[in-house]
Write a structure and sequence with these properties.
2 helices, Antibiotic biosynthesis monooxygenase, four-stranded antiparallel beta sheet, 105 residues, alpha+beta, 30% helix
Length: 105
Amino acid sequence: MTRQLFIYYRIPKADIALGLQCAKHMAACLKEQGLGHSQLFQREEAGKPYFTLMEVIHPAHEHSSCHAAFIETLEQLAKSCFAGLPSLPSRHIELFSEVDSGVKE
């Protein structure tokens, strides 16, 4: 079953350029380490002092079950890749699985 991780980051508006660089670095590291690939989206939060970045991670086949060890590997990678920010951004992770076509409504 195909799974994807949706990871949300809150980046202060003053740090968004650096935050985007950090997120792009993480995407490159994911690919280089054979963990999968990702897509990056951003949303400006009206009236808030931050942007929300959403990283969609498509795990490599061998990591598609997204076991706890894989999630911890991503956590450590994020800590390393976002270390250049004045403070680590808050992160929220959601895991979604592809809908099984055999599911009855």
